[in-house]
Fold these 2 entries.
Entry 1:
Amino acid sequence: MLKRILLLWSVLSLLGLGFVGIKLYQFDQKMDPSAKGVYWSFAQKIWQNQSIVEANTWRYPVEEGITAEDVEETMKVVANEHNLQVVAELPLYLQVAAMTGEKFRYIKIFMMCNALTAAKMLDHSDAFAANLPCRVTLIEDKTGRLWLYALNMDMMIYGGKPLPEGLKQEAIKVKTMIQDIMSRAASGDF
């Protein structure tokens, strides 16, 4: 009796694994070809940092001697070079200070957008609205060091079914622009 139960269990397990394998294969065929690598990288970052938030961000250290004002100016110049408008600035540190009556470390959020690219993304899926406009945050950490943070756009670009080719190229272009803005601002490179 025990042999029959174990045999049945083995057969059912193999059938179950086969079913899961077929479903994973079908799912994989619908995904962007880069999805596996993006998810693997994301999983490694979560494992390393134990934080989904850290895994889903780009982070650039600002070089020593570069002020927040220098970073802001560089970001605006580089954004303009890329035809990205800075559509809003949120000086969070001032708001916190106004609400608490105490000085707070420097945190300012810059929102950048190319309206025509945003329109194309939204025509594809309204869910892209959650990622618009592109945000770059300049933050002073608790030790006084400045950093630039932004949402890692790889999940949006590669993490699901393939985007239409023209839209995908547009999204990659925006990703490249945001990384260029961050990189150059972090080093003070106008």
Entry 2:
Amino acid sequence: MKTDREEIRRGFEKAYNEAGDVSVETDVDDQQRARRQRELDNWDVETGRGIAASEGIELDDEHLAVVEYLRSYYLDNGPVEHGRELGDLLETRFADAGGRKYLRRLFPEGPVSQGMKIAGLPVPDNTEDAGFGTAR
């Protein structure tokens, strides 16, 4: 039994068109961002309130602004290598509110270390060192 080549071609085209876009995302940055978004989806404000309470902090809108900034930065850029980098970014972002002094008032054990914990994010290496990120 001989099959008509034109019929095969039409069947293939029909199947291909019905399948739609079956491409796979190959952009590494997009894949990493999607993975980070999944990580962030495991956190909500109530989770943050619980972590903050264990740190001796009552989470309010000022704290949440910092936490949301940290979470947004993490989503866009991934984990930072050094806490100082993130501390400098926080100081710049919250300069109008008082910069480091303002952040220390909100997070007495350090805006990076406590802020990242409360945000449910990985704390950068060396951030919990008593010489960095901790006001005593």
